[in-house]
């Protein structure tokens, strides 16, 4: 399989899952000391992961928790971030300008910052109050933290059962999903590599997936135009520009908002002949109970879209690591 | 001027401003009785207005206040909406399916609903706990409510001075803005009526403006493709697909997030030869103090974009009231 290193994938995921003890140590300490609210602070791709975590928590929790965009926070502020606030962040480089300023501002306001900064020596890693350094797997880290906070509040009683399945089966389930998706990924890439624009629709944890896949992969890395739209909003405007040949892909997950994406998926065939439905239900996820499949739907979708990416990269002769402007120009 | 009825505009705005006593009566009663949090519940265009109200409040308030999308709320729920919650909504038709179900759900959870339902006899108008019926001017109604809640909490001390200026000058300021924008609107429409896709960028209260203008006007009413992107997010992916001929319009307002939009506006000339900056600062807004201009930036932008709309409608021979699918098909 093109650009697929099973061993590396497995170790990456299992290594992230193994952070759980350290995450719990931090979360348990915070819970013991008490906190007022939890802010998920991000920008770009990490902002999308924040949104995914929030929609997961919204299902279960009464914790006062919200998402902030780092640049917006720097400009407008947010008086709910202050003493007693826990700000949770993630950063690959640890140097994103808006994040550095956002963390400074939050700490000045009295908040404590819990950071997953991949590079232990980076600026952000030095600044945060609690730091756990491990590469990639951002959503997994966020969800592990969120689930622990909810578990400690007795809002997520399935915690132990769920993480038993995660530890035992997640790596294999995602690796198998990639294998199952490979042929689809190749065909999809062939069909859509020249699209003038491609629409991605999602809801629940698939909204962050659609948002970041469209923006951080197709736009940023493949230089293909996209629009992402929440399935809830699709019927309130965007539907009118969908015609026979409009390329639309619906991400259908298995969390609480599955029905919203299904509604779009059921409607599209009536007005469009160029749509695709990617449904996480089609993937085996061996070892996972029915009730837990929704919690990892966004990870399954990423396994699938990864297979699309490698083929678009190859077919379009466009290495995914090049950028036209990002960090190439000052702005 | 094409499709411009000054008298009607003036009466519409002044009539909306005159609702303030009734809005305050409701808000003051709620504040007296006490409340736990305020949820702005919307979908589509009203969701955008909710986001505009929230970003305005975030500047000033410690009130626990948040935005919910009605369809997402119906699917996922939100345990923070319950006894002590005030849910604020607006609806033109009073029959939008997701809103009706959302209001039912919130009330079942123990929340009180404060509705601006244009049609007093509509389903939603009958359901809400507090109802004020008056056509259009949704953002104005939301901001009047928000400002009163903040004033009552001593977080918006400029309330009286601000609304003196609003009552005295808003209608004229917006009418004059439309006149000032007319020639620009015609030229913009001529230049962009055939765009394959048009990008709209905004921040602060201009984010909701860009989001809803792109989706509810260009997509829904002109059937032209768009993507809206928050200025904070522009630099985290989307920038890579902007080239010389990409049509990009930046909405620059005068609220706390002006700097975020300015950053995009300053960057674009380096990489794009087909961009437009619409800056509310270019409009006189006679009678308004400098400090208050930002609070009405989104209304000024709507005055400007209204002039674009009438010319696109005329040039494209596409009446804005027709829909291909919305409320024409069951879905």
TrEMBL record, chains A, B:
- Top-level taxon: Bacteria
Q: Which GO terms describe its molecular function?
A: carbohydrate derivative binding; glutamine-fructose-6-phosphate transaminase (isomerizing) activity; isomerase activity
Q: Give the species this sequence originates from.
A: Anaerocolumna xylanovorans DSM 12503
Q: Which Pfam families match?
A: SIS (PF01380)
Keyword Zinc-finger recorded: no
Keywords associated with the record:
Isomerase
Lineage of the species this protein comes from: Bacteria, Bacillati, Bacillota, Clostridia, Lachnospirales
Q: Name one GO biological process term.
A: protein N-linked glycosylation
Name of the protein: Fructoselysine-6-P-deglycase FrlB with duplicated sugar isomerase (SIS) domain
Residue ranges constituting the SIS domain according to the UniProt record = 26-156
Record flagged with keyword Transferase = no
Gene3D superfamilies assigned: Glucose-6-phosphate isomerase like protein, domain 1
